[in-house]
Amino acid sequence: MEAVCNQNFNNSDMESSYGIVEKQFFHIKDENFTLQCGEKLEYITIAYETFGTLNKKKNNAILVFHALTGDSHAAGFYKDSDEKPGWWNIVIGPGKAIDTDKYFVICSNILGGCMGSTGPSSTLPDKTTHYNMKFPVITVTDMVRCQKRLMDHLNIKQLLSTIGGSLGGMQAMEWSVRYPDMVKSVIPLATTMKHSALSIAFNEVARHAIKSDPKWNNGNYNDESKPDTGLSVARMIGHITYLSDESMREKFGRKLQNKKDISFTFDSQFQVESYLKYQGEKFVERFDANSFLYITKATDYFDLEMQYGNGSSVKAFSKAKAKFLVVSYSSDWLYPTYESKAIVKALKKNRLDVSFCEIESTLGHDAFLLYDNRLNKMLKGFLSSVYNGIKNEI
Amino acid sequence: MEAVCNQNFNNSDMESSYGIVEKQFFHIKDENFTLQCGEKLEYITIAYETFGTLNKKKNNAILVFHALTGDSHAAGFYKDSDEKPGWWNIVIGPGKAIDTDKYFVICSNILGGCMGSTGPSSTLPDKTTHYNMKFPVITVTDMVRCQKRLMDHLNIKQLLSTIGGSLGGMQAMEWSVRYPDMVKSVIPLATTMKHSALSIAFNEVARHAIKSDPKWNNGNYNDESKPDTGLSVARMIGHITYLSDESMREKFGRKLQNKKDISFTFDSQFQVESYLKYQGEKFVERFDANSFLYITKATDYFDLEMQYGNGSSVKAFSKAKAKFLVVSYSSDWLYPTYESKAIVKALKKNRLDVSFCEIESTLGHDAFLLYDNRLNKMLKGFLSSVYNGIKNEI
């Protein structure tokens, strides 16, 4: 099933990609850094990567956000690594939709993550032990506030754009209402203003699967004994929601793994079964179960409407000043098009400059991560237009 | 959340219901009873219930099939029990859509089940131990063949109708092609001719959750130590697929369980979380984990097209003679309307008498189990018409 997983990667990616990148670390030490839950985190590390060059006017910076299980490695390759490139290498690079010859792109691993930023698997400041479930509950607001500190550190006072899909789109929108003066444009892809009951339900079952694994041990596991089975079930559940009925029909249908007749056993005979099993097994190698709990909870808590508008989506965006490009995918049933339309409606009522496109696709929610020339063209055009509008500003 | 679970039941149900029913048992002893997988089951018990009276001509019998986790208790109440009535009490009873004043209704627990019929939790004929995972893999065909033996036992040579939703609909259709001369009409509700990749995927993850529970112990568990957590996750996954985005939005949205502010903990704060947890916990009290494995596998194997038509749905129904009433629900995303339309198309190409209706509903797949006057009227009209057409036959 390798082909399916690496479908974004082809040989030309190496040549056309941004090239070699390095993960960097930014440390926040602030005894007054209070999270939305009320708890304090004095020491925070944020892992990040940059692509392209910040110009003299410092007006070409684009902040890109990863989704649930992504990381700061949005494009290019790590030195001495022939692994596949960053997760959005198809979009970010020289001459690409997010053109690193023109723009300075930053992507950081979210707070709560397990790819270099502080999260439940980090050690406590006194190095005695890991946070595990003693890590405070974090929210999208907390993630965005850490990113703001990183921007301060990089001396970036204006963002040409904030861009992300899914949980990344939530962060992109949060930026526009929390720091309206800093954000020139926002591109939320395949996302929502607030998590629906359906999305909460899938997340809760996935969390339940992890917590039901005896090896989870209330979050106190170690490398020798991790809740791999629970996390694998959680991933399998998630993975189904990232695809669509159509894409699964096209890709798998009722095809058998070994092209033989049905074996009348409980083995994974259907290709779709093997594929999901493979996805589950691969995932546990790279992701931390506690991080999965914290990040999914942050998405469930996400409710821009309530937090910034006391229940009104129009009021929630009342402070936003950015231009928006909202994109949904027709077969995304996790964050269906009607949820993007609700965003557009709220923005329009605030007389903001908003473009909207529903991309016809059979690929489900994950479509935003796959190569699509329609998206690339839209991104390129929209970013150029915003950049042309501001680049002569002092 | 009790109100949600018992939404089909109101005080008038007792008065208008069929009344007291008793579970009966039919025993098959046949050393040559070979299942589709090739294995033999010499001793089979089928639990069943009947409602109404078989007339002298024996032409008023209707066979009703339950879905995945149902049982033979389709209507009425058990003696001395003030529990809720049978699962389709809203449809089956005196004067109801399936009118027990006119028709003789039979419903049996499927082979592989755990509500009285032989399944993995049954003891081996020598009473030494339970089958557990040594139970042979069963199929919808095997279930239907057991029901045929039950009909022979009851001396019923003709069925006015075979009716069921979901897995019940699969059995209803299988009857029409396996015993075409016996079946006068078929009513498949919210079902499919073959399980899609999406449906297989959800089933596989649910099975994976059960098998990942250490208490499953390769199927060798006992009452003191059952894979309740795994089965509960499996049920939660299933339950989401029985609802719909719309119904969950209407019923739960982002409502909190205790009407307080968000608590920033991992408790089940959203109502949808508590509801799913409750569904999972209730389910493990009444259902056997191994039965869940076997029955979901039978639905995954179901492929009428391949089994009876060598890949052609038209050929699959070529022997059918019955009249059909096919019903789908607009918000059913487990067996979407296009799958029912494929059935209708295949039937029409065989010039069979077929009526089709997509019921507009926000209730998702489970809609067929909930009170709906539109369905009731259709069932009543269709059954009357079929009955009027044959009741004067000799």
How would you portray this structure in words?
In chain A, the strands form 3 sheets. Chain A has an 8-stranded mixed beta sheet, with helices on both faces. In chain A, strands 1-5 form a two-stranded parallel sheet. Chain A has a two-stranded parallel ribbon with strand order 6-7. The model of chain A is unreliable at 1-15 (pLDDT under 50). Chain A is built from 13 helices and 12 strands. In chain A, 56% of the residues are buried. Chain A has helices at 2-5, 12-16, 140-153, 167-178, 197-212, 228-242, 245-251, 271-286, 289-301, 304-309, 313-316, 337-349, 373-390; strands at residues 20-21, 24-29, 43-51, 61-65, 77-78, 92-93, 98-99, 104-108, 161-165, 185-189, 323-329, 354-359. In chain A, helix 3 (140-153) packs across helix 4 (167-178) and helix 5 runs antiparallel to helix 6. Chain A is 36% helix and 14% strand. Chain A has a single domain, classed as Alpha/Beta hydrolase fold, catalytic domain (Rossmann fold, 3-Layer(aba) Sandwich). Chain A is an alpha/beta fold. The longest helix of chain A has 18 residues, at 373-390. Chains A and B meet through helix 5, helix 6, helix 7, helix 8 and helix 9 of A and helix 5, helix 6, helix 7, helix 8 and helix 9 of B.
